[in-house]
Design brief:
six-stranded parallel beta sheet; alpha/beta; 295 residues; single chain
């Protein structure tokens, strides 16, 4: 129903089996040790630098709420980082689904200014990429870096719906027309194949139990992003190879289709899908955010 171009992705080091294990270990993982390259461990000249302490603001995407980040936020906080997970209009405990993209953006901007957050890494996932594009326009002086994780990076004048494959967009329009409150609820087979394709069936069902109807209007609103494309804010893109929420190739997909719109950007890759790893491997997701956000 939603074509997916399968591609084999090779690790950047073909002889990875012969690379010392410590090379691939995160400095946060249990049992980690510095890779001394033959030097004695007590020689500080050969130790990796201490991790930088960062402040993260994590913005979730569609068919999710701020609890989407619970596992990842817990890992980052355990490593000494500050983490904030704002909820935005039409999601979480907000019963009002009649919201606009501007209302969603204002929720995040108000959260940031109320807490007087500064010098932070602003992360957007999926639809959240369009949110952080607009948030960055309003509070650029507060943001150290923007991180898009398998996220939409819209061109000026586009809507998210403009970037969907025709068959997917048609399906969303039909689901929207069939609702009584202008929302879109993902059927389980669609959620299972596109959002949690690497999960077990049991994991997929548990995650689907928390999915609620998504306000449709913000997905179809065209956004003025001229100011965003004038910002000098550093940017990163985190791309997971098995993310099937958008088919790769044929003018669609996350990387390079979305990512290269950022101009100069840092690319961080991982092996996962659109939703599953925040539940099953939050330490891996947290490490990718750190790599994307550090100086």
């Amino acid at each position: 129903m939603f074509p997916y171009l399968h591609t084999n992705h090779q690790l950047p080091y073909p002889n990875y089996r012969f690379i010392p294990l410590a090379y691939y270990n995160s400095p946060y993982s249990e049992g980690w040790r510095p890779w001394s390259n033959g030097a004695i461990d007590s020689d500080e000249r050969y130790r990796l630098p201490a991790p930088q302490r960062l402040t993260f603001v994590l913005v979730h995407g569609s068919w999710a709420d701020a609890h989407f980040w619970d596992g990842v936020a817990a890992v980052l906080r355990s490593q000494g980082h500050a983490v904030y997970t704002p909820e935005y209009a039409g999601h979480g405990k907000d019963p009002n689904k009649d919201v606009t993209h501007a209302m969603i953006t204002k929720s995040v901007v108000d959260f940031i200014t109320k807490l007087n957050l500064r010098n932070f890494v602003l992360v957007g996932h999926s639809f959240g990429g369009t949110v952080i594009q607009k948030v960055a326009e309003q509070v650029p002086d507060r943001i150290n870096r923007l991180v898009f994780w398998d996220a939409f990076v819209l061109k000026d004048g586009e809507s998210l719906a403009d970037e969907l494959p025709p068959q997917t967009r048609q399906g969303f329009e039909q689901l929207r027309a069939g609702s009584n409150d202008d929302t879109i609820m993902l059927p389980f087979p669609l959620f299972r194949d596109l959002f949690v394709n690497t999960a077990t069936l049991e994991e997929a069902r548990r995650m689907y139990a928390g999915v609620t109807p998504e306000p449709a209007r913000p997905l179809f609103e065209k956004l003025d992003l001229k100011k965003f494309y004038e910002l000098p804010t550093p940017k990163s893109y985190v791309y997971f190879f098995q993310d099937n929420a958008l088919p790769q190739g044929e003018g669609f997909g996350w990387n390079p289709h979305m990512s290269t719109r950022l101009g100069q950007f840092r690319l961080i890759v991982g092996d996962g899908d659109h939703f599953t790893d925040t539940r099953t491997r939050p330490d891996m997701v947290a490490q990718k955010f750190y790599e994307a956000g550090r100086d």
